[in-house]
Amino acid sequence: MKRNIVIVLLILVCFLLQSTVFKTLSIASISPNLLIILTSSFGFMGGKKEGLWVGLLCGLLEDVFYGRLLGMHAVIYMYIGYANGYFNQIFYGEDIKLPLALISVSELIYGFGMYAVMFMMRSRFAVTYYMTRIILPELLYTIVVTLVLYRLIYFINLRLEDKDVRS
User: Fold this and answer.
1) Which residues make Cβ contacts (< 8 Å) with residue 6, sequence separation at least 6?
2) What is the residue extent of each domain of the chain?
3) Which of 60, 94, 145, 162 measures 20 to 30 Å from 70, CA to CA?
4) Cβ atoms within 10 Å, residue 98
5) Could you tell me the pTM of the whole model?
6) Contact by Cβ (8 Å): 114, 76
7) What is the mean pLDDT of the segment spanning 69-97?
């Protein structure tokens, strides 16, 4: 129960930071996607089910405040969290290479998923423009933020697992 409350609070804090602080710190109107970092992290740290639920909550939060269609972000985040859960068995928390790779791939999937829903469905096929102006800059910014934020998320997860084992 306590773990779920802490995860919901983390989702809210990341959403608020992404919506306020990082929008102010945006570079060329690009800001990092903290919710992807959180969804991916809890996917490979907690497994498929936890990744799915964290992704669903992150996506619904983004849909309610910024989405044009309710559920569009939720489905993409949910699949990303679930897919990252497959890597739970090979996850080793001290090594940042796997989390960095998974978060990067998740960001690419999110970017292409949003491109498919937002532009391709309206017959706009400017893939190279979208790739060079939005997806890749956001990916790079997210990677830089991941290097800092991942350690904090990992530490919080260790503390939550410690308390779950003791209970």
Assistant:
1) 156, 160
2) 2-166
3) 145
4) 14
5) 0.93
6) yes
7) 93
